[in-house]
Each structure stands twice: as C-alpha cells, then as structure tokens.
Specification:
Strand 9, helix 10 and strand 10 form a beta-alpha-beta unit. It is built from 13 helices and 12 strands. The protein has 2 domains: about 130 residues, Rossmann fold (3-Layer(aba) Sandwich), CATH 3.40.50; about 140 residues, Rossmann fold (3-Layer(aba) Sandwich), CATH 3.40.50. About 45% of the residues lie in helices and about 15% in strands. It is elongated and about 70 Å long. It has about 350 residues and is of the alpha/beta class.
C-alpha cells in the first residue's frame, strides 16, 4: 500500500531537518579536528619540532640549558629534541648531529657551536634547506643564523678581573689557564679578563698561552704543570683565572693537591655543586656565573617566535654576575646557581 503524497512530503521534510541539526552540532571530543595537535594534523599544519644541540652533555651547565629548553617547549607547545656530543672536544660528532637533523627536516635548529668557524658550513646547509638556526652560548662566524642568544662574555671576563684586582689590592702576578682554541665564548671571556688586567699597572700577567682542554682531567694536568713552572708553592702567584667549568674544576684540584688552595686569589667561571662548595670553603674566591637555564629557555623561545613569523632580536644577552662567598645565600644567586631541574628533567 502506497503512502499518501502528503505524508511522503512530511517524512522528507522531517529527514532534512534531522540532517541539518546533526550537521550543526559540535564535533565529538574524539574528533582530531577538535583539539590539540590532532587539529593541526587535520588542517595540514605541521607541529614544530626544534633540535637543540649543546656543545656537550656531561657538564652541569648543559643540564641547566636542557631544563630551560624543556620549559620553553612546554609553555610554547612545541617539540624539542636534545642531542649533542658527549664531550666538548668532539667536533665531528657535533657536525654529524647538525647534518642529521637537516636531513630529517626539523623545523629549526638551536645550536651551541663547538667551533666558531667549523660549524659555519653545516649551518649554511641548514639555511639552504630552509631550516633556520639560532646560535646560543658561543658565537659563530657568518650571518646565516637568525639570532645569537648568549652571555656578553667579554663583559663577564672583565667582572672576574675587577674582583681579582680588588682582592689582590691592585698588585700581584696573574695566571690564565685558557680553555681551547676555536671556542668563541671562552675566548671572549679570556679577552675581557686580559684587557682588564692590562689596564691595571700593578697586576703582572705571567702566563696566558696554556690551554686546559675540554675535560677536567686535561685541565688538571695542565694546571699542575703551570703551578710548578711558576713556583706557586712559594707564593709567587697572586691570582688565577679559568674561563669555564672544566678548567675551573681542574685548577681547583691542582691547587688542592699542591697545597696552594687559599693562598692565591682564584676566580673561575660557571658553577656546579663542587665549585659552589669550594667557593663556600674559601678555595675559590669568585665565580662568574651565567644563567644557563634562561639561556636554554630564551634560545628555544627565540626560535619558536621566528618560526611563527614574529620579529626577533639579532643579539640577546642572557646576563652574568660575579658571585663570592658573601653573596652565595642571596635568593637571586641561588635561583641562578642551583635551579630546580627536576620538574623539567625528572632528575
């Protein structure tokens, strides 16, 4: 039996109305277009993936950088991949890491170059592949990178010289144990220190051409030789400066072993639990500390803003300060020297 025409028209109108209402409803929460990166995938928008490449992965400094980078990635909703050479003298390994990330087609690279010239070609290759690079911690020759996020290292080196000059009463023989050639950040710290010392007639520079190398062990061996060569045990040396964590700890060990600790005015760079303990005990007179957590944070933030089309500064100073025993308990100093990494690294 056929349905009357009037009823058929009514049924058709009811069906159309039901379909219209269904189409107007919000998509279900399980719909990938409704939230998060699922929506990005549905609309064809690629989620940002940023490679963060440190100079090394063992020093406490780099752990703080890593934590800052993780914080930025969570706040800005981007992915980061942290990968670098184990030791800070493995230039080939760092170049290989950069080239691998370029081949993978990451969104951007945040790099602390081990050498200010050797990393220039890999960075150029990244730029040619339309992968922008933000350089941090240590400068790089050329202008292929988007921004440089770092401490003003020349100014930081001068801080150490001023502190030492005050402690020495403006006179005495001074030794500098350098880090390694090609490291722009430490070279600038050394330059800042040496320029300031040369401007103080009462300070006599007796050695500035020895390099401690990338490890604590190599720095310790070179430090021992320096102390012997300049008869430090006789009180002939007034002050010593070292430009990074490994040279500072290597020199600290050498001073203790030779019994000269507390007999010279020792100024180092960067911090770790052992260096802070030595500062508190009086074996170190001052540490120039950077803000590695902030450096990692700002480096990732700068890259993210660039990738999202925002203008960024060509040079971003992350700050440094000279810390002595008296200022160790300053809350602002504690926040820089002993940041809580556990929320970001789970350590």
């Amino acid at each position: 039996m056929k349905m009357p025409a009037v009823l058929r028209r009514r049924a058709l109108l009811v069906g159309i109305a039901a379909l219209t209402l269904a189409a107007c409803k919000d998509p279900p929460k399980s719909d990938p277009a409704a939230s998060g990166d699922g929506g990005a995938r549905a609309t064809g928008v690629k989620r940002l993936k940023i490679a963060v490449i440190p100079k090394g992965t063992t020093h406490e400094f780099w752990k703080s950088v890593h934590a800052g980078a993780v914080k930025a990635s969570k706040e800005l909703d981007v992915d980061i991949v942290w990968k670098g050479p184990l030791k800070e003298d493995d230039l080939k390994a760092q170049i290989d890491v950069v080239n691998t990330f370029v081949a993978q087609g990451v969104s951007g690279i945040v790099l602390a170059p081990l050498n200010d010239s050797a990393l220039r070609a890999p960075v150029r290759s990244a730029a040619q592949a339309k992968i922008p690079v933000v350089v941090f911690d240590s400068d790089l020759q050329g202008d292929e990178h988007v921004s440089f996020v770092a401490t003003d290292n020349v100014a930081a080196g001068k801080l150490a010289a001023e502190g030492m000059a005050t402690k020495l009463g403006g006179k005495g023989k001074v030794i500098v144990l350098r880090y390694q050639e090609g490291s722009a950040s430490t070279q600038n710290r050394e330059k800042g220190f040496l320029d300031a010392v040369k401007g103080k007639p009462g300070l006599e520079l007796v050695s500035d051409n020895q390099y401690g190398g990338a490890t604590t062990e190599s720095a310790f061996q070179k430090a021992e030789s320096l102390l012997v060569a300049h008869k430090a045990e006789t009180g002939a040396i007034g002050g010593i400066f070292t430009p990074n964590e490994s040279t500072t700890f290597g020199m600290l060990q050498a001073l203790k072993r030779s019994g000269v600790n507390k007999k010279v005015k020792f100024y180092g760079f960067d911090s770790s639990d052992k260096l802070v303990a030595a500062l508190r005990d009086g074996d170190i007179d001052g540490l120039v500390v950077q803000d590695p957590f902030n450096m990692g944070y700002l480096a990732v933030k700068t890259m993210t803003e660039h990738l999202r089309g925002k203008p960024v500064e060509k040079r971003i100073d992350t700050g440094a300060r000279l810390v002595d025993k008296e200022s160790l308990d300053d809350p602002a100093v504690k926040a820089i020297m002993s940041p809580d990494l556990k929320p970001w690294l789970g350590e």
